UniProtKB/TrEMBL annotation:
It comes from the Bacteria. SMART domains: BHL (SM00411). One of its GO terms (molecular function) is structural constituent of chromatin. It comes from Sulfurimonas denitrificans (strain ATCC 33889 / DSM 1251) (Thiomicrospira denitrificans (strain ATCC 33889 / DSM 1251)). This is Histone-like DNA-binding protein. One of its GO terms (cellular component) is cytosol. Keywords: DNA condensation, DNA-binding. One of its GO terms (biological process) is chromosome condensation. Gene3D superfamilies: IHF-like DNA-binding proteins (4.10.520.10). Belongs to the bacterial histone-like protein family.
Amino acid sequence: MNKAQFVELVQASGNYKTKVEAEAAIKAFTEAVASALVKKEDVSLVGFGSFGASLQKGKSGKVPGTDKTYTTKDKMVPKFKAGKGLKDRVAAGK
């Protein structure tokens, strides 16, 4: 599903009158979650899941086929953990 299709789905699910309103709602949600994660705050939506930020340790490795090596630095990465309600709905939709 691409963004335009998702906007149409949100419009129908949320009873928005226009696609512009639905797209604004999606943008507001994603901006709010991103802002919370930047502040290292978790966002929990009961029945849906939780968004969080966690530290990913740096690593070193070798580029296949060459003698070159690389190292990455520690960084914060976003994580999502699905809630029981979401898991149950997806499993029932098989």
